[in-house]
Amino acid sequence: MKAYIVVLIILIVIFGAIGGFLFKRFSAFSSMDFSPPPVTIAASIATSESWGQVLNAVGSIQAVRGVDLTSETSGQITEIHFDSGDTVQAGQLLVVLNNEIEEASRNNQIASLELAEILFERDKTLIKQKSIPQSQYDRSRADLERAKAQLAETEARLNNKRIAAPFAGVMGIRRIDVGDYLSPGTVIAALQDHSELEIDFTVPARYSPKLRAGLVVGVEVDAFRGERFEAVVSAVDSQIDTATRNVLLRATLKESTGLLPGMFATLVVDLGEKQSVVSVPETAMTYALQGNTVYVVEETEDGSLTAIARIVQMGEVRRGKVAILSGVEPGERVVSVGQNKLFRGVRILIDETVAL
Fold this sequence. Notes:
4 domains, Elongation Factor Tu (Ef-tu), domain 3, six-stranded mixed β-sheet, six-stranded antiparallel beta barrel, conserved putative lor/sdh protein from methanococcus maripaludis s2 fold
């Protein structure tokens, strides 16, 4: 029994010593300063740049010369001289309407005119000889003028039966066929001159003192992503729209290759005034309801780097860059890629080439 007690005491002492040793080791380990490994990010330098003051707007492209072709008179279509999509020249004959009645009237009036000319020439000779009264001469002269007017009227009606292109351009989809009865105002097809295009758009009236002809306008359309066309303001409306308090402008495109009337366009009007801004990459922005932020790289007391979130006031966004109106100074480094891995107090490593 005594031996058992002695063995138990010895075991208690041994396990107590082991427990004390392990307790000291774990206490020392837990007292060590543990910090997570640094996060690799990409950073960019906030730069001071001179940006021209611009206005953003939207509009639709339209042809300087573009119409829906219609007829001034009615009649059955006897001839069509174009197909959908054809390029036509100014004055080119497009459609002919039935003109049998007008042709008959014209022939009749030509004969009447010839007779009136003969009678007038005869009376002209006789009046000089005082062989006829003045009233007869006046009547024959009036008959001649009336015959000329009637023939001119008939020829005008005949011309209305022949529909020609008013200017050079590209025909749209044909909406008529031979044999159709064409009424005045019925659309034959659209005719658009693609060589000269323009855009009408509006901007707030508060900018009216800065608006003038000659301002440069950048034009972008979805059909040509990444491309920017250039236009020039050709006119500013002389009044403000009382309903919207906007002013209407018209810009003429310098180069219109590939653009079509009706295309929706995003516009940037350069007002020609420069302003100094602090710009950062658009990827550096973190958007939130409580405020947009940028992570700024700062050095800690031990020389390591960390990222601090700052609420900033944004300005314009231009081609991948954002103007910062307040919150970041020129020369400061901002996190441009990897913000989603950052948290308060995290250490960072900058690698401009790392793919994150």
